[in-house]
Amino acid sequence: MAAVVEAKPKSKKKSTSKKYSKATYLKWYETMLRIRKFEEATLKAYSKQKIRGFCHVYIGQEAIAAGLVSAITPDDKIVTAYRQHGIALCRGLDSNSCMAELFGKETGCVKGKGGSMHFFSKEHNYFGGNGIVGAQIPIGTGIAFAEHYRETKNLCVTMFGDGAARQGALYESYNMAMTWNLPVLYICENNGYAMGTSVSRTSNVQEIAKVGSAFDMPSESVNGMSPEEVHEALSRAAKHIRSGKGPYFLEINTYRYRGHSVSDPGKYRSKEEVQEYKEIDPLKVTENKILDQKIASKAEIDKIKDAINKEIEAAVKFAEESDYPISSELYEDNYLQKDYPFLT
Ligand SMILES: Cc1ncc(C[n+]2csc(CCOP(=O)(O)OP(=O)(O)O)c2C)c(N)n1
Ligand SMILES: [Mg+2]
Fold this sequence. Notes:
The protein is an alpha/beta fold and 344 residues long. It has helices spanning 22-47, 62-71, 85-91, 95-102, 136-149, 168-179, 199-202, 227-245, 271-278, 282-292, 298-321; strands at residues 77-79, 156-161, 184-190, 193-194, 197-198, 219-223, 248-253. The strands form two sheets. It has a five-stranded parallel sheet with strand order 1-2-3-7-6, sandwiched between helices. A two-stranded antiparallel ribbon has the order 4-5. Strand 4 (193-194) and strand 5 (197-198) form a beta hairpin. Helix 1 crosses helix 3 (85-91). Bound molecules: thiamine diphosphate and magnesium ion. Thiamine diphosphate (TPP) binds at residues 81, 83, 131-133, 161-164, 191, 193-195, 260.
């Protein structure tokens, strides 16, 4: 099978034409706004030490979550890295249980024992949050193997950052997935940096989509600042996979406006560079497009803003008022095997 590498440069152009229904645009807008407001509240709570430990926000990358909502089905599986609040929310995990998880409370989606990097929900086919860079690539390949084995039509969306694209586990997984024709959609969210190290400093192959060609895996480079373009690429990939043709790889070019984690002052990039991407902010561009092209009225947009603000305010209150897990919970849900040694 020939690899399809569409070598598109990082596009900073605003897309202008209206191609989708009003409901789709409003869904994208609501999804991105929920993530943005959730994480702004997260940063505020972190600064008050109500949230502790590692915390990596997704702000700037939300168009990828929006495209996921419209292009894949609730039965498809998703596994990703630690920058995951937005992916969990777009998957349908509710703001209350995600915020409570960040606060370490028993009402959190994994009972306060996972924190920022380890949300999980079997009900939502969301396999989490992984702190080890690239660890989810073989996990997602394995989940896809299970779907293939059970002869379902589902695919496993396996997401990772540009830093993970150089991990050996990726090469073994891609090889296996192609050999066994697995229903896996690999997505590299290329935000240009792995902590403080730019992609250009770590490889002479900067268009990460090209990695797929070593395996004859159909691969594309996509503009990740546009929900439309993300949706279209994901839909093409999902169609290919569901028709039984095997894996697909999308490098989705995006940008994070904040540091790597909350403790990163971000000295490795210029203010001008950050500003350049803020000018094509997917949330702002989508809102302007909805209003300028009269897809929906200002009153309809304000109604969504109001509802999201209330939802996030309520989530913070819910998290604050919830209890911490009781100590006997510490050893629950960690091991399936009840008599696993070394537990006591
Ligand atoms: C195996 C491994 N090596 C190193 C680290 C330390 N580390 C944490 S995040 C990170 C950068 C990963 O960057 P990228 O994959 O681009 O994801 P992004 O943070 O940009 O979303 C590194 C090196 C780790 N967690 N796991
Ligand atoms: Mg990165």
